[in-house]
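Thread: Newbie trying to understand structure tokens

Hi all, I'm a second-year student working on a class project, and my supervisor (Dr. K.) asked me to get a predicted structure for one chain before our next meeting. I've only ever worked with sequences, so writing a 3D structure as a token string is new to me. If someone could post the tokens and maybe explain what I'm looking at, I'd be very grateful. Here's the chain:
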Amino acid sequence: MALALDRTRLLHALERLGADLSARGLFVEVAIYGGGALMLQFAWRRGTDDVDAVVREGSDEATLAPSVGRVAEELGLQPDWLNNAVGMFTPLEEDDAWFTAAGLYPADGTPGLRTFLATPRYLLAMKLHALQNLDRGGRDLRDARQLAAHLDLRDEAALHALYVSVYDEAPPDEASLRFRSVLQERPR
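---
Reply by user tm_fold:
Sure, no problem. This is what the structure looks like when written as tokens:
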């Protein structure tokens, strides 16, 4: 069974991925979302089962797949440890301001990978969107609470405004009805 990713393991996987791409003469840019982006920005997020990522414009997803597979095999990760399933939660048009440049991999030598991380504001909007699906467990709610506290958002109106600023529409009722629970039990 493949092991989950913690921060150290994720950084090692990105190093190996960048090295593999570089050895193939490639350079790919990816945007990282979800648990991966949270782990790389905050100490409170300790692990993730996979890395939600989208290949940025100008890079080709098909060129990335063989390297992702080799890293999975080498490090004992799931074959889809890096995947684009996050696409269902992203707006069709993403503003570059919603990302921050994060790293070049490998750190030594010619890089084959550049990562961009979704900002805390964008991650919170995505977590708010995900709240419409109760079957996703409590992790999205816990992440949303942490992000709201980090951003010092203290009322439902602020959460609603953030959601609209990203998705350009009001949140679904199933999600907005849970905004109050995001503001309860603020993390310490």
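A couple of things are worth pointing out once you decode it. The mean pLDDT is 91. The longest helix spans residues 7-23. Feel free to ask follow-ups in this thread.
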